[in-house]
Amino acid sequence: MASTKKENKTLESSATPSVIEEGYLYRALGFIKTNPLASSNRFKIWATNEFDDDALVKAICHEIAKSPFIDSVNNHYRITKEGQEWLHEISESQSIEPESNLIFEHDLEQSPNSTLTHPYEVSKLKMESKTLSVFQALRKIKKGEINLNPEFQRAFVWDETKKSRLIESMLIRIPLPAFYLDATDQVNWTVVDGLQRLSTLDAFCTKQNFALRDLEFLPDLDGMKFDDLPQNYQVLIEDDTNLIFYNLMPGTPTLAKYTIFSRVNTGGLQLTPQEVRHALNQGNSTKLLQTLSKRREFEKTTCGSIPNLRMADRELILRALSFSMLGVDVYKYHGEMDAFLIHAMEEMNSMNNNDLKKIENTFIESIQKVWAIFGKYAFRKYSEEGGRRGPINKALFEVWTVSVQDYDVNSLVNNKEKIKKSFRLLLNIDYDFVKSISSSTSSYRAVEKRFGEIKKLLKECTQ
After folding, report:
1. Burial track 286-304 (b if 16+ CB lie within 10 A, e otherwise)
2. What is the residue-wise DSSP string for 70-130?
3. Which residues lie across from 190 on neighbouring strands?
4. Who contacts 361 (Cβ-Cβ below 8 Å, separation ≥6)?
5. Nearest to 106 by CA among 450, 443, 448, 461
6. Coil, strand or helix: which one is 149?
7. Which of 167, 176, 247, 459 has most Cβ atoms within 10 angstroms of its Cβ?
């Protein structure tokens, strides 16, 4: 029997009353909705991966267990009708507002003075194919010469059945698809496409942390780990199975690597653009983005609504940092978002710790200033105070974070009513501004428009 809940409990009277926690509850209920009757232990595993903060995970698990939106059936969770209604009501304000522009898509109406640069010189592309046995590949993984990037593995989690079927495919001699790696460092390779397959081989053959299960063609092997397999099967996997690697070599431009890996990515869960950038630009930039995404100030000002598993939070932060560091004129030179963001990551990778700390502090101060003006409406579209708010908008996040940097927080707070009124007016009467934050937002014309209007608005409201 399901446990009894009080029928009339509201969000405000439940254990998650604040706007900040609202986003966490939304993400937790979303998981339970898509995983009906998930056990409390499975929920805790999901929360640990999703939030990566022990104290926060503990609080969420405690609160979800007594939420009026959840029924507990034999220690398994099920969302209630009240929870379904709340999810539907609040869904529009959570996560990040989708943009209509795709990778490499550009606004056909952009300014004639904006010239798109060619992505890269094709002649500089250098790729080689290399064949390794599973044994050789696992040895390189063990020595740290192939980086499996544990951050990605949180987002690409195969269950044991899928892992077992991969091993079975090798045992029945089905060739594995090719692997794509960044080998511009000839000693240390970074896997971009094929990560989960290599991780599975490492987990089964080296770490031996799972046993085969649910095999279709070789059910007699169910329950066996690598050392339990007959020797002929061990040899078949390690010595007789060849893996084909396509490696990008030194001299290949970063943007070329990004383009190639974006197009060849074949995984069941494809890498997001930010995950590809992360793989190809390891260094200060990736560490800084990780640090900022975990700052409580970022969680507060985005109301805890930005998922972190697929690096949506880091892309949001990177866009703001890139415009802060490089400016709109440099964006005009690149003419599109991907090259611009890669440029910014390369710049950060070459910075010293003092400069990186200044960037971090400036970012935190800026998002706090925006929160001081707008509160829970920060970085969102909305038509009236107290009304429904949209989800976090990437373009608004970058333009507000950058634009308030040169203003004293007291000046902004003293004039916040004028700023909010002018912003709502802009959203209601300026079609071109709304378009610049809604569709084809990566065109130079859109970037120029939104930065120009917010700069003008702040100047007029603080005079």
Report:
1. bebbbebbeeeebbbbbbb
2. EEEETTEEEE-HHHHHHHHHHGGGSSB---SPPTT---TT--TT--PPPS--GGG--EEEE
3. 147, 182
4. none
5. 443
6. coil
7. 167
Q: For strand 76-79 and strand 127-133, is the pairing parallel, antiparallel, or unpaired? A: unpaired
For the stretch 306-362, pLDDT in tens is 877 688 899 999 999 999 999 999 999 888 898 899 999 999 999 999 999 999 999
Task: Label residue 136 left, alpha or beta by phi (over 0 means left) and psi (-120 to 50 means alpha).
Answer: alpha
Strand, helix or coil for residue 389: strand
Q: Would you state the pLDDT for residue 290? A: 92
Q: What is the pLDDT of residue 184?
A: 78
* Calpha distance 79→184 (Å, rounded): 49
Q: Residues of the chain whose pLDDT is less than 70?
A: 1-21, 52, 89-95, 99-124, 150-157, 265-270, 309
Q: Report the topology of domain 19-93.
A: Arc Repressor Mutant, subunit A (1.10.10)
Query: Do 340 and 276 meet the contact criterion of CB atoms below 8 Å apart?
Result: no
Residues in the chain: 463
The Cα–Cα gap between 384 and 382 comes to 6
The two tokens of residue 391 are: 């989800």
Pairing of strands 146-147, 189-193: parallel
CA Rg, the chain, in Å? 25
Give residue 150's pLDDT: 56
> What are the tokens at 441?
């937002």
Q: What are the sequence ranges of the domains in the chain?
A: 19-93, 126-252, 284-461
> For residue 123, what pLDDT is reported?
63
User: Alpha-carbon distance 271 to 275, whole Å?
Assistant: 6
For strands 242-248 and 179-182, give the pairing.
parallel
Spatial distance between the Cα atoms of 13 and 16, rounded to a whole number of angstroms: 8
Integer angstrom CA distances of residue 180 from 189, 203, 272, 325, 346: 10, 20, 16, 32, 22
Q: pTM of the prediction?
A: 0.69
For residue 290, CA distances in Å to 283, 295, 309, 311, 355 come to 11, 9, 11, 9, 17
CA-wise closest residue to 320 among 378, 401, 440: 401
Separation in Å, CA 130 to CA 147, 179, 183, 250, 401? 17, 10, 11, 15, 46
Sorted by sequence, the CB contacts under 8 Å of residue 263 that are 6+ apart come out as none
- So what's the pLDDT on residue 317? 97
Phi, psi (rounded to 5 degrees) for 77: -100, 145
